[in-house]
Amino acid sequence: MKMKHKKKLPKIVIIGAGFGGITLAKSFKKKPIDVLLIDQNNYHNFQPLMYQIATGGLEPDSIAYPVRRIFRRYKNVRFRMAKVNRVEIEKKKLRTSIGNIAYDYLVIATGSKNNFFNFEPVKDALLSLKSIPDALNLRSFIFQNLERSLVVKRSGEKTLLMNIAIVGGGPAGVELAGALAEMKRYVIPKDFPELDLSKMHINLYQSSPNVLDVMSEEASAKTLIYLKKLGINVYLNTRANSYNGSVLTLADGTTFPTDTVIWTAGVKAAPIGGIPANSIVAGNRIAVSKYNQVLHTENIFAIGDVAAHITKENPKGLPMLAPVAQQQGKLLAKNLVLLTQGKSMEEFVYKDNGVMATIGRKKAVVDLPHWKFQGAFAWLVWMFVHILSLVGFRNKAVAFVGWMANYFTYDRPLGLILRPYYRNYKKK
Amino acid sequence: MKMKHKKKLPKIVIIGAGFGGITLAKSFKKKPIDVLLIDQNNYHNFQPLMYQIATGGLEPDSIAYPVRRIFRRYKNVRFRMAKVNRVEIEKKKLRTSIGNIAYDYLVIATGSKNNFFNFEPVKDALLSLKSIPDALNLRSFIFQNLERSLVVKRSGEKTLLMNIAIVGGGPAGVELAGALAEMKRYVIPKDFPELDLSKMHINLYQSSPNVLDVMSEEASAKTLIYLKKLGINVYLNTRANSYNGSVLTLADGTTFPTDTVIWTAGVKAAPIGGIPANSIVAGNRIAVSKYNQVLHTENIFAIGDVAAHITKENPKGLPMLAPVAQQQGKLLAKNLVLLTQGKSMEEFVYKDNGVMATIGRKKAVVDLPHWKFQGAFAWLVWMFVHILSLVGFRNKAVAFVGWMANYFTYDRPLGLILRPYYRNYKKK
Questions:
Q1: What is the pTM of this model?
Q2: pLDDT at B88
Q3: Do A418 and B60 make contact, defined as CB atoms within 8 angstroms?
């Protein structure tokens, strides 16, 4: 019977066009599945290079790409730009900013957002790096402050405008610190010869005994050396206590006067509403099975930062890393096809291919499963891997040319204050 | 006497880092003049390509460049980012957002801004092209509306979101219309296959009998043919009367439902406050002598769009074009050096090197003093001249590569809604 072929395809709705959601949707290519991908932005962005936007090393189009363009040749994938408010599990539908959306299977790939902990009440006074507008605001803010520091009269005010505090010594904080230190050394003296840069301090605060503590001790130790060489004041075992818009106060009472506090001290998962309370675990993550199925639900799955498969080996779930999301997305596509065919699914097993971070030019730390190394060669490896990862991005070549130019000239090309940014915060 | 060499240099303050101000400041290189350049933005931008930003053909860094970077090797040129409120002629000082600034000689190069005429009361409902944020807002707005038109239910609402009106058929309006028409034909169908593009109308309204009426009749006639070929509805001798946020009404009572009205129908000069009233002429311009000296003042000069040297041949002053500003800037630098040496100045004579405009790819119109031509060769000339004009811009090569890619693929690479834009206007 011909009618058989016209059977309605199972409809899978994916929320989030990050590494997990994009990989998942791509893996459904030519499969008998009707895919709807939803994101509140119309682009996918390459989060690991966000600090390059903030420091003017790259422009947004180098690390962001329109979702629709990624799926031009995918007949079974549609995209909607919308904010998802909550899922109504009983009715198998989503409540969104563009109306209700029904699903047969739902995949939550909504990632993570800043966790400000005790700084939540003053979060509007902080700068951060989680989105492209965040990074562009940070860039404008730094250059606005440099301009202002030329014209303020009081020395204290100058110090305030020039000092920079980074709270959090994970990969984001460390990579940003490295880029800012190089900007201070190689770029600002050329563009602001009137400024006395001895008044500019870049302080990095890390609550634990090591920077980059997700990596090996070897990598952490070397990173600390690199940071100090770049002139960054690194404070280990140091917690930030409060900020009043002008002065950052540490747990031991020490103060640091600064207009610029950049928050990289933690993230928490960003699940949608409507998930059963007993499926939410530490860090706001959604508890999933080994098939990435959300516990206590049917037909709902979660991948990437927002999902946590809690086991004896990983009592907090897997780390919030792009490769985890990508590997889960890939397998889940396969599993959902199996599921719709009434077959049994495959368990997810994470394959750790290593972690790396860069601290300024020619310096990086790389932890591979059986090999750890640091220095200039590590930097080349870092560069190579990141260029390759930008596959599918229009500006792969442009980014590469830009970086190479940076590398040879020790220069950041950009400093346009296209949209001045003022914090929505009244100093006390 | 050694002291003689320490004599204070004459201080020239230039307001505005457009084509005029930048050329003037550059021309003081190694001259015994102390130059202070002021602009409210920290970058110079290449205004003629603004429509490329709006339509996603180029990113801002391709047409904007930090002022400080331009003057890195100029020991006698300093820059301040500030808004100038007014000049106090008696005291020879400026009142600015960063305090008072004294001058020996002042040069006003503040350019022009939108003139909304009878649309002034509804200007917040319009989009425009005068600045990079304007152009980025326009880009976001168009893509936001395309996303929304996919999800609205009523056909009338869809039409409203997809229709585009351009008011003004000068170079800005024509070039923008061409780029939008190509976007509609070659890009939107690929990214929004679900949309019925027969519902999208691009209307261009020109109050006079010709589009591009600053150019030759030959160029105007050919431009009209090009625009129609691209599917643009061109209305000549047509004045827009009013807009209520949803419906544009013409002088003859005809209406056009559209969410997007782009204003390119006129500019007026943007002088600073404090200029004697009897020195302000038609279009808000500042009347100047043949030496670009502001009438009824001493030590104050004006160049570019903001200045008008009224003569029998040019009863409205010279046209508001980049080459006029650049040529005036170059001569004024020479004249100010002569003046500080007590010598007599040279008269300004404008050398018209021609005008050109492009209407989509492979189509342009060029009016040289003794040769007018249109078509594909004109487009190559246009391209060549604009690439050369971007000299001093970091991204000369990047812009060129991007354009070439566009040319071969008939594609606009960009559509990132980095900052959603909502008009600050309540529909009536």
A1: 0.92
A2: 98
A3: yes
